[in-house]
Amino acid sequence: MKSSGIVRKLDPLGRIVIPKEIRKVMGIGEGDSLEIAKVDNEIVVRKFSRGCIFCGSDKEIVEFNKALVCGECRNALGKE
């Protein structure tokens, strides 16, 4: 994983602040849900999404390359 050069300390409750620049680039706003996962020996934080990355649908969702895609968008991608 590539380092961004920003270091933050945990507060007594285990919280960290995600810098504004990173939140802006990642499209993370106040009130958004974040998913926290352990992957190998690293902690991964990403914006939580239950729906298709293209249309937001929650119908016929499958994971493809760590992204969620619905059946309709999968079919559309296959035609291009």
In short:
With 80 residues, the protein is of the alpha+beta class.
Could you explain how this protein is built, in words?
- The protein has 80 residues and is α+β, with helices and mostly antiparallel strands.
- The protein has two domains: 1-48, Pemi-like Protein 1, Chain: D, CATH 2.10.260.10; 50-80, no CATH class.
- It contains two helices and four strands.
- It has helices at residues 20-26, 71-79, and strands at residues 34-39, 42-47, 62-64, 67-69.
- The strands form two sheets. It has a two-stranded antiparallel sheet.
- The model has no long low-confidence stretch (mean pLDDT 87).
- Residues 5-50 form the SpoVT-AbrB domain.
- InterPro entries: B_subtilis_Trans_State_Reg (IPR052731), MraZ_N (IPR035642), SpoVT-AbrB_dom (IPR007159), SpoVT-AbrB_sf (IPR037914).
- One of its GO terms (molecular function) is DNA binding.
- Keywords: DNA-binding.
- This is Transition state regulatory protein AbrB.
